[in-house]
Amino acid sequence: MLVDLRRFGVTGKEMEHRLDEVHITVNKNAIPNDPQSPFITSGIRVGTPAATTRGLKEDDMVTVGRLIKLAAADFENSAGRIRAEVARICEKYPLYGQKQ
Questions:
Q1: pLDDT tens string 46-99
Q2: Given 4, 35, 51, 74, which is the most exposed site by the fewest CB atoms within 10 A?
């Protein structure tokens, strides 16, 4: 899934770093006709293999999307809340072989 970040005034490179801090893994990615360089980008790519491996459902992915939006819009004030929600989701859906 490709996310265009231009309306938030944040680059793909910055979002990749922000989301890494709250344990959401994405990659900076160019969007169609991207005004930024390939090393900065205006978008991110959100992969789904880790989420599907854990067993996340559609509603959980809506939550992940909401957390990504919050990180784009107000990271400084929401990072702790995002990190806690990510931890809750990971606890709810542990990797195979992890104790529940």
A1: 998 989 999 999 999 999 999 999 999 999 999 999 999 999 999 999 987 766
A2: 35
Question: What gap in Å lies between CA 35 and CA 20, rounded to an integer?
Answer: 24
CB atoms inside a 10 Å sphere around CB 71: 22
pTM: 0.91
Whether 78 contacts 68, CB under 8 Å: no
How many other C-beta atoms lie within 10 A of the C-beta of residue 92? 12
**Domain spanning 2-92: which superfamily?**
Aspartate Aminotransferase, domain 1 (3.90.1150.10)
